[in-house]
Each structure stands twice: as C-alpha cells, then as structure tokens.
Amino acid sequence: MRGLFASKSRIFYVLLGAGVSFIIIGSASALYTLTPVPVSLNGTVEAGESDTLTPNMNAGNPVVLSVTGSNSSIEIVDPEQEVIRSVNNTASFQYNFTAQTDGQYLISIENLGSSDLSIAGSAFTKGSQIALGGQLMLIVTGIIVLGLALRARLR
C-alpha cells in the first residue's frame, strides 16, 4: 500500500509549496528589516541607573524625546559619533530632531537623582544586519527545496 505522500506529484507539490513559502516569508522579512518602522521610546529609568537607546534610522526619520522626573544626564550621538545634543543635571528635557544621515543613533540617559525618570517619545528603527543573514538563509533554503522538488518531479 502506498503512503499518503508516496506519489511523485504529491511530493513535488509539497516541496514546491514549502520552497515557495520559504522564499516569500524570507523576502518579506528581509524587506521589513530594511524598512524603518515607528517605535515607542516610553519607559522609566530607576534612580542611579542608565539606559541606552539605539534607533537605526534612515535620513529624514524624526525622533521625539521627553525625559522628566529626576535630574538626569542625556546625550544624543549620530552614526559618525558627533554629539547632536548633550545636557547634564536637568530635571526636564524635551528634544525633537530629524536624522541627517543613515545609521544607528545613540541616546544615552543617566538618572542622577533619587527618583525614577520617565521617558516618553518615539523614533523610527529598522532591523539589524545580523537578522538579515537569517532571512537570506531562509530564502536560500527555499531555493534548495525548490531544487529538490524539481528533482523529485524529474525522477
């Protein structure tokens, strides 16, 4: 008795569907990694602690940042390591800027006071280049599975 997937045509269509699915999912995921999406910067920093935000932006992406509550030290650095804005020992900080160059920006916030800091705002960021490698491997896997489908069809 032949199994459920014993016929060549069933094996071909299963492998064809899997290969095409891998390629579509990998391609869509890679596109998502390369496209900046809006993210929230909302959060808190406890007394004596610090936080580092690293949005990976394209030129023209806006950032809105507000830090209130306790005394803090804040520094914003662009991808070329140029300081965009730096303030020390402030209890209230609000700053809006637009990314001038593509790359990873660094927003460092250090709580110098005795109470929690409240961070509010938004920025754009995109996926890391390391994640892109995984998505490309998914596309390559899809191509290999398509090759197996063609081999099963020709046998």
Structural overview:
With 155 residues, the chain is of the alpha+beta class. It has two domains: 8-34 and 131-154; 37-125, Jelly Rolls (Sandwich), CATH 2.60.120. It is built from two helices and nine strands; from the N terminus they run H-E-E-E-E-E-E-E-E-E-H. It has helices spanning 8-34, 129-154; strands at residues 37-40, 43-45, 50-53, 56-57, 62-77, 83-98, 103-104, 106-111, 117-125. The strands form two sheets. Strands 1, 2, 3, 5, 6, 8 and 9 form a seven-stranded antiparallel beta sheet that branches. Strands 4-7 form a two-stranded antiparallel sheet. A hairpin with a 5-residue loop joins strand 5 and strand 6. The longest helix has 27 residues, at 8-34. The model has no long low-confidence stretch (mean pLDDT 90).
Average pLDDT figure: 90
Count of discrete alpha- or pi-helical segments spanning 4 or more residues: 2
Largest β-sheet summary: 7 strands, antiparallel
CATH topology of the largest domain: Jelly Rolls
Radius of gyration: 24 Å
Terminal-residue CA separation: 20 Å
**How do the helices and strands follow one another from N- to C-terminus?**
HEEEEEEEEEH
CATH superfamily of the largest domain: GOLD domain
Beta strands, count: 9
Number of domains: 2
CATH class descriptor of the largest domain: Mainly Beta
- CATH architecture assignment of the largest domain: Sandwich
Instruction: Give the helix level as a range of percent.
Output: 25-40%
Short description:
The protein has 155 residues and is α+β, with helices and mostly antiparallel strands. The chain contains two helices and nine strands, in the order αβββββββββα. Strands 1, 2, 3, 5, 6, 8 and 9 form a seven-stranded antiparallel sheet that branches.
